[in-house]
Design goal:
Length: about 325
């Protein structure tokens, strides 16, 4: 059976955006506008995820839930210590990474059972988890950044894929971040995808023409994140919203979390990006107090300002208007 994601009356998915932007209201608004929205389980406690799922279920709309796949590789300890020393020198207190942070993977998998669409980022979930979700009636969507990852995801049992290009805002879904350059565009990446399962294209879409071009190349839908960051229903911080209306360039950086992500360039990406090793989620925890303090001050030079390359097209307003502008 083909997943019903291909039956959206407007083929636009409001991307899961962990860290605040994705809200229950955004997910409901996207569905009511004819698209589909995803709750972002990343960083949240299982009880917060459970209450968001209940709130969207109560609205009676289809929706998705996105989960981070925990990594298996151990970071280079010497490089991590060096980076910590640089941050301590400049900021004083830094965060302490808890041992074995897996973002409550097992509990989130249990909560996801039966959610209509369940997507994953940062790698392949175990085959047993995919099978359990499918037998509970969920459509399982795996996020990939290359044809090789797509083949692995299909072999693992994905019902559909999100093909995330390097132009995308936020963290790259790439399975192995070593050597990630973030230089693919959505149309080019889509052209390399195997066609065994439906493909949702993502990255750098800011206009109806961008979306149309991807549908014409065979995508069943387009997943847009940055375009929704200024939505009334989004939980985007004021300093982030403000920066998105400016004229910075975007860069791929590991400075904030130890995993490559596309963000608006600022002082933090310039100064610390060149020193940051691959060490997610350890560096996420290291920089958390620095970023929390920057958020309190509303300081855009120290905040992680996730943004895709099409951010200059982002407009404020109701999510329904943003979705209708992308898929008229
Ligand atoms: C602020 C922000 C947070 C994001 N968080 C997640 C997430 O939690 N899970 C995920 O799979 N993708 C996440 N993404 C990536 C999106 O799913 C999507 O691939 C991306 O937004 C598409 O590119 P665009 O931003 O150019 O539209 C995030 C993107 C942004 C901008």
């Amino acid at each position: 059976m083909l997943p019903s994601v291909i039956e959206l009356s407007r083929p636009v998915v409001a991307a899961p955006m962990a860290g605040g932007p994705s809200t229950v209201a955004l997910v409901i608004a996207a569905a009511q506008a004819g698209g589909l929205g995803f709750l972002a389980a990343g960083y949240k406690t299982p009880s917060a995820v459970a209450s968001e799922i209940s709130a969207v279920r109560a609205a009676g709309v289809p929706f998705g839930l996105n989960i981070f796949v925990p990594g298996s590789s151990s970071p280079d300890v010497a490089l991590f210590r060096e980076y910590r020393a640089i941050l301590e020198r400049d900021f004083g207190a830094v965060g302490t990474p808890p041992p074995d942070d897996d973002d409550h993977f097992a509990e989130k998998l249990r909560l996801a059972a039966g959610v209509p669409f369940v997507s994953f980022t940062f790698g392949l979930p175990p085959g047993s988890a995919i099978a359990a979700l499918k037998s509970a009636g969920s459509t399982v969507i795996l996020t990939v950044t290359s044809a090789d990852e797509a083949r692995q995801a299909i072999a693992a049992g994905a019902d559909a894929l999100v093909a995330q290009a390097g132009t995308a805002g936020g963290h790259a879904a790439v399975f192995d971040p070593a050597g990630y350059r973030g230089d693919t565009t959505a149309p080019a990446l889509l052209g390399t995808m195997p066609r065994d399962v439906p493909i949702i294209a993502a990255g750098g879409t800011g206009t109806a023409a961008d979306v149309r071009a991807l549908l014409d190349r065979g995508a069943v839908a387009v997943q847009a994140g940055t375009a929704f960051l200024l939505a009334d229903e989004a939980g985007t911080r004021a300093a982030h919203r403000e920066a998105l209306t400016g004229a910075r360039e975007t860069v791929i950086t590991r400075a904030f979390t130890g995993r490559p992500a596309r963000a608006l360039r600022n002082r933090f990406t310039d100064v610390y990006g060149p020193h940051a090793p691959i060490a997610y989620p350890a560096i996420h925890h290291l920089t958390a107090p620095i970023r929390a303090e920057a958020a309190r001050r509303g300081d855009p030079e120290t905040l992680h300002l996730w943004a895709g390359t099409a951010y200059p097209e982002a407009r404020p307003g109701p999510a329904a208007d943003i979705l209708h502008a992308l898929a008229p």
